[in-house]
Design a protein that fits this description.
With 431 residues, this protein is an all-alpha fold. The chain has one domain: Na+/H+ antiporter like fold, CATH 1.20.1530.20. Helix content is 69%, strand content 0%. The protein is built from 17 helices and no strands. The C terminus is likely disordered.
Length: 431
């Protein structure tokens, strides 16, 4: 019966994932909002009896399901970005300045602020840090209304010029991997005790080595696959010529596997692999075909996960939620992320506001739209498997509440805010 019920739920979620985006295009409501709501309604019926919804009992399944959603999303994001990033060209790095500032300034501030709030609410230091690290990454899927639409291809190289959308998209593509070192701070603190026992190991291995390995693994895999797809001497291997877009699946799974086997952060490997592949024959239509495969798969997987999350919400996932979790979740969405983003994106002294790649209104919008999602679920599930102290029901309830609140608040405000920041956006959505 459980297997039959799973087919019903999967089929319904796939149907909704296919039809909802177009149905909701003209309204200030998103498909994730609807899927969570539908899931909550299903959870109130006897139908979900027997479904594996308990995060403690089914932690491994939740970890791998969320892991798959993230790597598919990261491949799509990496292929969607048109702005080049070349290791040996400083000019391209400067054009990503808003992204670097959100990652280097905004994300650590967010982690520290949430950890301090958790500690003040009575959490143990390791648990408080895990909460901050798990809620730090923004979601590369749920914020689709405020991100780039996809790769622009044609007869010439096209650069993505919407700075707001580019910044949010590139930030989401990178912070899923860059939050991992801070998750390891919580794990090491819980398993090895005093910071002095592992501080050097964390800096040398978890903060530096694993990031470098992940980036290099993704770069090599992306370059090799691009050479095969576009320039191989064997016609049968030049899959770009015949438009075999399923190479996207091989790229995301292969790059993630290589990055993890070598000891790096696989999430970074996937994103860098997509960027490296995108840099080859940038104007080729094949990139759009690969992106479409990744985008469709990520949409289906994400909305299915959100449907299950909605069912779990009314099946006991929020039982441990208290005023502390509600306060921390809302503080992250309404205060911490916006403040950290504004601080990170503020014009440098002496440079003048006109030198910032983002206008004042765009900086406010970028700071606000830090949508939380599947990445938070993955990090919590991963850490819970490392030590029992990090597997508290309260953490699951708080993270689930924060994700749902983010989906609702950001989903409702995405259309009107983007229309106000960019009036042309409103005309595109309401022709």
């Amino acid at each position: 019966m459980t297997a039959d019920l799973a087919y019903v739920v999967i089929g319904a979620s796939l149907l909704l994932a296919i039809v909802l985006p177009d149905l909701l295009n003209r309204w200030a409501i998103s498909a994730p909002m609807v899927l969570v709501g539908v899931g909550m309604l299903i959870g109130l019926t006897p139908l979900p009896d027997g479904l594996p919804l308990d995060p403690q009992t089914n932690r491994v399944a939740i970890e791998h399901a969320s892991e798959l959603v993230i790597i598919v999303a990261l491949m799509g994001v990496g292929l969607a970005l048109d702005r080049p990033l070349e290791l040996r060209d400083p000019r391209t790095w400067r054009r990503w300045s808003s992204t670097w500032r959100l990652l280097a300034i905004g994300m650590p501030i967010t982690i520290a602020a949430i950890a301090l709030l958790g500690w003040a609410a009575g959490l143990a230091p390791a648990v408080a840090i895990l909460l901050g690290a798990a809620l730090a990454p923004t979601d590369p899927v749920l914020a689709s209304d405020v991100q780039v639409a996809g790769p622009q291809t044609g007869d010439h190289e096209v650069d993505e010029r919407d700075e707001l959308r580019f910044t949010l998209t590139s930030e989401a593509g990178l912070n899923d991997g860059l939050a991992f070192p801070f998750v390891y701070v919580a794990i090491l603190l819980a398993t090895e005790g005093a910071v002095s026992n592992w501080a050097l190991e964390w800096v040398g291995f978890y903060l530096v080595a694993k990031i470098v390995i992940g980036v290099l693994a993704g770069l090599v895999v992306g370059k090799v696959l691009a050479y095969i797809a576009f320039r191989s001497s064997s016609r049968s291997l030049r899959v770009a010529e015949r438009g075999e877009s399923l190479l996207a699946l091989a790229a995301l799974i292969g790059s993630y596997g290589v990055g993890e086997v070598l000891g790096g952060y696989g999430f970074l490997s996937v994103f860098v692999c997509a960027m490296a592949f995108r840099s080859a024959e940038r104007s080729h239509d094949y990139h759009a075909a690969m992106h479409e495969v990744a985008e469709r798969l990520e949409r289906l997987l994400t909305l299915f996960v959100l449907l299950i999350l909605g069912i779990a919400l009314t099946r006991g996932l929020l039982e441990a939620l208290d005023w502390r979790g509600i306060a921390i979740g809302l503080a992250l969405i309404l205060v911490v992320r916006p403040a950290a983003g504004i601080l990170a994106l503020a014009p440098w002294p002496g440079r003048g506001e006109r030198r910032s790649p983002l206008t004042r209104h765009q900086r406010w919008a970028t700071a606000f739209f830090g949508v939380r999602g599947v990445g938070s679920v993955y990090y919590l599930a991963y850490a819970a498997g490392q030590d029992e102290a990090l597997a508290q029901d309260w953490l699951w309830s708080t993270v689930a509440f924060t994700i749902v609140a983010s989906v609702l608040i950001h989903g409702v405000l995405a259309t009107p805010v983007m229309a106000r920041v960019d009036p042309a956006e409103g005309r595109r959505r309401h022709p």
